[in-house]
Amino acid sequence: MNPDAAAYFVSSINASLAGDAVDGTFTDDVDGLPAEHPNAQGRIGMSDDDLAALRFATQTTSQHLIDTLIAAGKYNWQAFGSHDTSAPAPPGRGAKSISPASCATTMVTLCNATLQTQPLLMKMTTAAPDVNQTVAAFLIARPPHAYLGWSWESGDEKWNDIFYLQAGEPTGLCAQTAPGVFERAWTGGVARLDCNAWTADLPFPSL
After folding, report:
1. To the nearest 10°, the Cα dihedral for 35, 40, 45, 47?
2. What is the DSSP string of the chain?
3. How far apart are CA 195 and CA 104, in angstroms?
4. Of 26, 97, 190, 193, which has the fewest Cβ atoms less than 10 A away?
5. How far, in Å, CA of 146 to CA of 133, rounded?
């Protein structure tokens, strides 16, 4: 609620993202007190009006941060439609992950062309048999703004060399070429996911 402190918060985060190697950041509790601590209000003796004012100030500062990040070509995880949860579809779309059981249903949902106007957050797997399928699903369905990873729980120990693949640029949208089979052409090749056999083709060059 202190304007100078709010301005310092925004400018400090922006400064921490300097450089082309950093795309964005994560900020917690963007809705303000009490967020994950429902007993906080009572413990510190804050009135309902005081709490509402603090929450509004927090949300205003968070929006100002997002605006300045966008102007700098960066982004904030909390600005995505799915908020702070990795999910392969916006809230309410029903899809939660790519798996053999949900593959076809999930891909039909994600391949809806209207979702190309919304950001996509897809949860990456660490299970070796499912890595190719997850990456194929991501490449086939992804809109212009998309993230594949583990939210703020990412770490070097989760790295997979599949991230070195160079798909290039998409030359079309997702196509279901047969029941349960999905493809998308890229300048580097055609990504293909067969939900029936749970197989994926990623014929792309790698760094």
Report:
1. 20
2. --HHHHHHHHHHHHHHT-STT--EE--S-TT-TTTT-TTHHHHHT--HHHHHHHHHHHHHHHHHHHHHHHHTT-EEGGGSTTTTS--SS-TTS------TTTHHHHHHHHT-GGGGGS-EEEEPP--GGGHHHHHHHHHHH--SSEEEE-GGG--GGG--GGGGB----BSS--EEEETTEEEEEETTEEEEEETTTTEEE----B-
3. 6
4. 26
5. 17
Residue range(s) defining the domain that contains residue 13: 3-79
Structure tokens at 203: 């014929």
- pLDDT given at position 125: 82
Q: Using CA atoms, how far apart are residues 190 and 148, in angstroms rounded to an integer?
A: 19
Q: Which of 33-42, 63-72, 178-187 has the highest mean pLDDT?
A: 178-187
Residue 206 included in any domain: no
Q: What is the pLDDT of residues 151-182, one digit of tens each?
A: 666 677 888 899 999 999 999 999 999 999 99
Same domain, 122 and 197: yes
Name the domain boundary from 44, 79, 114: 79
107 touches 193 (CB < 8 A): yes
Residue 146 lies in a domain: yes
Q: Is residue 91 part of a domain?
A: no
